[in-house]
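With this grant's support, we have settled on a layout for protein records. One resulting record is reproduced below.
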Amino acid sequence: MQREEIINLAAGPSTLPQSVLQEAAQGLLNYEGTGIGLTELSHRSPDFTKLTTDLENILRKHLNVPQTHRVLFTQGGGSLQFSAVVMNLLSRHRRLYPDLPEKDRVMDYVVTGNWSSKAIEEAKKLAGPCTVHTVFDGREHSADRKFQAISAAENWKISNNPAFVYYCDNETVDGVQFDGYLSKEGENNERIRFPFHALPRDPSNPTNLVPIVADYSSSFFTRPIPQIEDHAVVFAGAQKNVGPAGLTILLVRQDVLVPQPTNSLYPIPTTLEYATLAKSGSLYNTPPMFSMYVSLLIMRHYESKGGLSAVVAESKIKVEKLYRSLEVGEKKGVFKLRVKDGSRSYMNVTFEVLGEGNEAKFLKEATEKGLRGVKGHRSVGGIRISLYNGVTIEQVDKVVQFVLEFVEKNAS
């Protein structure tokens, strides 16, 4: 099949705009008239230094990143940040409270799905004598022990002075997300947003909340980051909405960027220390150059279409169309949406196809229609349709048409 016949709905790496890929292909051969391909340039050359600066500036502009925060670029994906966050934020806490017993240093985790589950397990490996505390676990509020919703902050148990409070904005595997703008007016379920109001103040600086860490890997540059100034760290793997795999983007507040003492009992590997990344301008070692280049092209592409506000508007249209079609199928007994209204992701829509053999039938017919990557994650099964920025409204219309046709043929 030709590329134009395929709709890539995979959870990641995601589809990217074809015009950007074509431009990137030229850059691989001859980057901006240098006569050298992008991947052959020195990462310390003036050309690549400018690329790094341009990428930082365009991200700052559209995400309103405050001057209190550095924009950093690194390798390792979001998963490596599960480790880096623990090391860097515990280091900050030890610097502020040197006499506090290690067992009294607490890391707070909000567990809403697969990725925050993996993050808290990594924290337990690295915590040593420190305490890893679960603020909320969505499985404990579900009858079948599955991630189906985020409860209100009254059900959370937040520590008084944690080293940080960690959450994942969007859970790609389970289809759970903070925000909740999809909740319908007049319904009893509340619109779930991250409850900044429920967090305590930072004792070391009462004008700030306690440090907040957010994994935005699958929702980065899909909407403004709420209260971005209150976050100590925001990290995102680029391969969902911003670029190809290999690049991780970090927004790190300045107070986290103090170098660790050389005689520390809890050393941070050099390439994982945020202060090292900041001091070197993200160039301590060779960064993921091609991924950064494509990400810059993609950011320019969306800027030409109206910037982040246009991305948000298009995302809302796409996801509302898809959920409406699935709700038709749910009423007719063909589908079952997995996540409760109010916590549903607008990036990863998860559902089950009811009836013996009907899931296999759905997948087979979807493949015949050119829909790719719709099989659910191996750990949970079912169907998952991902609506990242690279998926167009026109493509979603074709998905909706297929969904409604499937409902019509299989309704009981």
